[in-house]
Specification:
The chain is mainly alpha-helical. About 50% of the residues lie in helices and about 0% in strands.
Length: about 350
C-alpha cells in the first residue's frame, strides 16, 4: 500500500523548475553565433559529414530563438537560398520543410510542396529513405509559385526509390513530411503506411532501434536512433489517424529510452561520445511527441537544460561536443542548432485527431 502511494506521488509531481531567464540568454547567444556562422564558408572537413543540411538546420533553429533576424544580410541570403535552390538530398529537403513551415507555411507553401514531392519520390522500396537524389519536378511545381497564391498538389509516387536506406535519413524524412502535411500539402497515404511498417518491422526486441543502413533487422539499439525511431513512428501513426498513446511498440521504445537515459553521451552507441547533440535533440522530440515530461525516472527537459547551460561556451555562445572530449559531427554550427532546438522545445505537440478511417 505504501509503495503504491509513493509511486502515485511520483506520478503527480510537477516537473522541476527551470531558469527561463538563463535559457533565454543562452539561446539568444547561440542564435547570434549561428547568424555569424551563416556568413562563413563551410569548413571543408565538415562539408561531407553534415550531408548538406547545414544552413537549413541553422535557419530552423534560428526560427525558434525569438529574435528578428530579417535585418541580418547573411540570414536573409541563406533563407532565400534554401527556399529556391535545387533539392539534392533527404536531410536538405526535410530540414528545408521544417524551417519554412516554422517561419511561414503560407508564404512558402509552394516550396513545401516541392519538399514533399522530393521525399515522396525518394522513398525506398522498404519504406526507409536514403540520402536520395534530385528529381524532375512535375510541371505544377517546376515553374515557380502560382501567381494566384495557390499550391501544387503532391502527385502519387512516381517510380521507385532505391531498395533500402538508413534510419537516420528515414527519421528526418518523417519530420519533413510532417511539416509539409501541417502546411496542408497532400501526400499519398501509402507513403506514411509504408514508412510506419518499416519502423515496426525494424524495432528490436528490446524496444529500440539501430542505424540499419542496409535495411537489416537486428541492428543493436542505441539512443539517438531509438529516440528518432519512436518519434517517427508516432508521427506516422498520427498522420494515419492511428492510436499512438496505447501502441505497444511506442510504449516499449519510450521505456527503452527511460532505462538508458543520460544527457552526457549517446547511450549504447558503439562510440558513445559521437552524435551527442544529435541525441539530445532526439530526446526532445521523443518527449514532446510521446506526450511525457518523464522518460523513465528522468525529467528529460530539466536534466537537459542543466547540462546544456553548463556546456555552452562562455566566450562564443556556441556548443561543441569536442569541448566535452567528444567527437563532433557537423561542428559547432550543428551542435549549437541542436542545443537551441532542445532548449526551445521546438517540436510541436501532436494535434488531436480522431483515430480510425
Amino acid at each position: 500500500m505504501i509503495a503504491s502511494l509513493l509511486a502515485l506521488g511520483l506520478l503527480l509531481q510537477d516537473s522541476p523548475k527551470v531558469n527561463q531567464r538563463a535559457i533565454d540568454y543562452a539561446v539568444e547567444r547561440g542564435g547570434a553565433f549561428l547568424v555569424a556562422e551563416l556568413a562563413r564558408p563551410v569548413d571543408g572537413k565538415f562539408a561531407e559529414k553534415i550531408k548538406y543540411g547545414r544552413d537549413e538546420l541553422m535557419i530552423y533553429a534560428l526560427a525558434h530563438v525569438g529574435v528578428d533576424y530579417s535585418h541580418h544580410r547573411a540570414y536573409v541570403a541563406a533563407l532565400e537560398e534554401i527556399s529556391t535552390q535545387q533539392l539534392r538530398n533527404t536531410y536538405q529537403a526535410s530540414l528545408t520543410a521544417l524551417a519554412l513551415e516554422a517561419i511561414d507555411k503560407v508564404k512558402y507553401n509552394w516550396r513545401l510542396a516541392q519538399c514533399a514531392q522530393f521525399l515522396v519520390d525518394n522513398q525506398c522500396e522498404n519504406g526507409q529513405w536514403s540520402y536520395g537524389q534530385p528529381i524532375t519536378m512535375p510541371d505544377t511545381l517546376a515553374k515557380g509559385p502560382p501567381k494566384d497564391g495557390g499550391t501544387g498538389t503532391v502527385a502519387a509516387k512516381r517510380g521507385k526509390g532505391p531498395k533500402r536506406g538508413d534510419n537516420s535519413n528515414a527519421q528526418y524524412a518523417a519530420l519533413g513530411l510532417r511539416a509539409c502535411a501541417s502546411a496542408g500539402i497532400q501526400i499519398p497515404e501509402d507513403v506514411f503506411s509504408n514508412a510506419a511498417k518499416w519502423w515496426e518491422k525494424n524495432q528490436g526486441k528490446d524496444g529500440g532501434w539501430g542505424y540499419s543502413d542496409q535495411g537489416q533487422v537486428g541492428d543493436p539499439s542505441h539512443g539517438s536512433m531509438t529516440a528518432g525511431g519512436v518519434s517517427s513512428l508516432i508521427i506516422l501513426r498520427n498522420l494515419l489517424r492511428q492510436d499512438t498513446t496505447g501502441f505497444a511498440g511506442i510504449k516499449k521504445a519510450l521505456a527503452w529510452i527511460g532505462d538508458n537515459f543520460t544527457v552526457t553521451e549517446n547511450p549504447n552507441y558503439e562510440r558513445t561520445y559521437q552524435w551527442h547533440y544529435y541525441w539530445l535533440y532526439a530526446i526532445e522530440r521523443a518527449g514532446i511527441l510521446g506526450g511525457t515530461e518523464k522518460l523513465g525516472d528522468h525529467w528529460w527537459y530539466s536534466e537537459g537544460v542543466d547540462h546544456l547551460l553548463k556546456a555552452q561556451d562562455q566566450k562564443y555562445g556556441s556548443w561543441l561536443s569536442e569541448r566535452q572530449g567528444m567527437e563532433s559531427v557537423g561542428g559547432a554550427a550543428a551542435d549549437t542548432a541542436f542545443a537551441i532546438l532542445f532548449l526551445r522545445r521546438a517540436t510541436k505537440p501532436l494535434p488531436k485527431v480522431a483515430t480510425g478511417k
